Amino acid sequence: MSNTGVARPRPAGVGLRKVHTPAAALRALEAATRHRLVVLGVAAVALAYAGRGGYPPPDSVPFAQSGIDLLTGRFGDVYADDYNQSGPLQLIANALFLPTGYSAVGLLIMQIVGNLVVVGALMAGSRVCRRAVGLTPSPVAELAVGLASLLWIIPGDLWSGHLAGVAIPCLWLAAAESARRDHPYLAATLLGLSAGFEPWGVLAFGVLLIERRPTVVLRAGCLAGAVAVALYAPFALTGSFHMFEHAWPVSEVSVVHLIWPDADQFTWQMRMTQGATSSLACAAVVLALRHRAGAAVWMAPLAAILFRLLLDPTVFSYYWVPVCLVALVGASTIGATSSRPAVIALLSLAYLPFVKVASATGLNLVLTISALACTVACVRRAPPAMGAAPAGARSASAPSDAARHHALARIRSRAGRAEVRSRKTAPGPGR
Question: Where are the domains of the chain?
């Protein structure tokens, strides 16, 4: 009250408690982004613990038994039955987690490790792919893809499938990035190892075309094939190898039924057609993006996976896990300079794999492949990002990374020797 006895109006907000909800939420988001490894890791472990006591993936226990046969030297028993369509590396992994068959503790450990691998692989894949296209790593993008895996992939169909659904796309991405960084033989080794989880690991051998020297590509391809063959050779030499005798039932809602309406079984001969188509799709994306090799790192593997599913006789929901993983990594490459069509295509590509309608699997696949084709077209027309020069396009005026490294080392060595000589010849203060 003033000296005149007239009450002054209270200024707005004085005496009232201020609530800064947006600012608090922003601070919480910044803290979560800064400590994303801890936040996502704890959440992944909590999800595994919450799902404890359930049943393992349907094939885990049989695969574990085959893995034990492998580790104990009974090679002739591993593929004595055509039921086993898994590679030796996946068999060993299952045997390590479930050495005595079904075990609640072993299943919990497998789920904890698997959840952490999925989250870590997505975060690392986001970082690698953003650098490949000339963008700086984004903590927000890494947090986003990690949260997406916790919300949709891990609680969904991850543990209904095989470990290969995670291992193979991760190895493909690492191989494509190795080829882009001028390490074709490392890329070939990783591709060969991917076939050791399941035979469809060979479908992405086309990423070796990122290395544009034909002789090097040929040698790397031979190395990749040799690694894959070496993993299965000990079992084939026993004379009791029946993997390729298996046949799958053909679903009436599959694209295969439209192509072969009279076929009720899908044989390994048909698998060869499926594999050739998938491999050609992978190679076609690499060639279409020959001046955008960074984008091909994830688009080419995704093309191989999608065309594999398109020509698969039966598509279960967990078959989409590799698609979801690679698509999320690709969506994390959205940057400030991305055009609106590219952003729409990338977001569609990340969303469509999570729409699992059994009666419309073929339609969903066609839509996802169309989104990938639109993304490829947008990337081809977009100007290259800074630092995203295509790998493999080397000439006399564009030396490789190794050559540049050696040249810089020689320059620094010469500069150091010149500095030492100048110090020796310089007059001292007492002269």
Answer: 35-381
